[in-house]
Write a structure and sequence with these properties.
Blueprint (H helix, E strand, L loop, with lengths): L2 H15 L8 H22 L15 H19 L7 H40 L1
Length: about 130
C-alpha cells in the first residue's frame, strides 16, 4: 500500500468535496458525511491494489525469501561459470548463501505455522467464553 499516494489523492478529493464551513443543521451534516464517505471509498478503489491470493500459493512465502532466492540464483550462475575452478571463493559464498536461504525458508514456515496455531487458539478461547 502506497500511503503517500493514498493520502495525496484523498486530500485532493476532500478539498473539492467538503466545504470549509461547519454544517449548520442535520441535513448539511449528512451531506458532508456522504461526501466524506464517497471520497474515501473512491480513493480506496483508485489507490489500493486488490489481489486475490491463489489457493495454490505458499502462504508462508515472503518478499525477503524472493530476494534471497534471486541472490542464491545469481551466485549459482557464478558458481556454474567457475565450475572447473573448485578453489574459487564463489563456491564458498554460494554454499553459505544457499544455507542461509534454506534456513530462512524453514524459519518462515515455522513462524507461519506458529501464527496459524495462535489464531486457532484465539478463536477457540473466544468461542468458549
Amino acid at each position: 500500500m502506497d500511503w503517500e499516494n493514498f493520502n495525496k489523492i484523498l486530500g485532493n478529493k476532500l478539498k473539492n468535496a467538503i466545504p470549509s464551513t461547519e454544517p449548520s443543521n442535520k441535513q448539511d451534516f449528512y451531506h458532508v458525511l456522504q461526501a466524506l464517505m464517497e471520497s474515501v471509498t473512491s480513493t480506496f478503489k483508485e489507490a489500493v491494489l486488490v489481489t486475490r491470493p491463489s489457493p495454490y500459493m505458499k502462504r508462508w512465502w515472503t518478499w525477503e525469501l524472493s530476494k534471497l532466492r534471486m541472490e542464491v540464483r545469481r551466485l549459482g550462475q557464478r558458481v556454474y561459470a567457475k565450475r572447473k575452478e573448485l578453489g574459487d571463493e564463489a563456491h564458498d559464498k554460494y554454499q553459505k548463501m544457499h544455507n542461509q536461504y534454506t534456513s530462512a525458508i524453514e524459519q518462515s514456515k515455522r513462524d507461519h505455522w506458529e501464527d496459524f496455531l495462535d489464531q486457532i487458539n484465539e478463536k477457540n478461547s473466544l468461542d468458549c467464553s
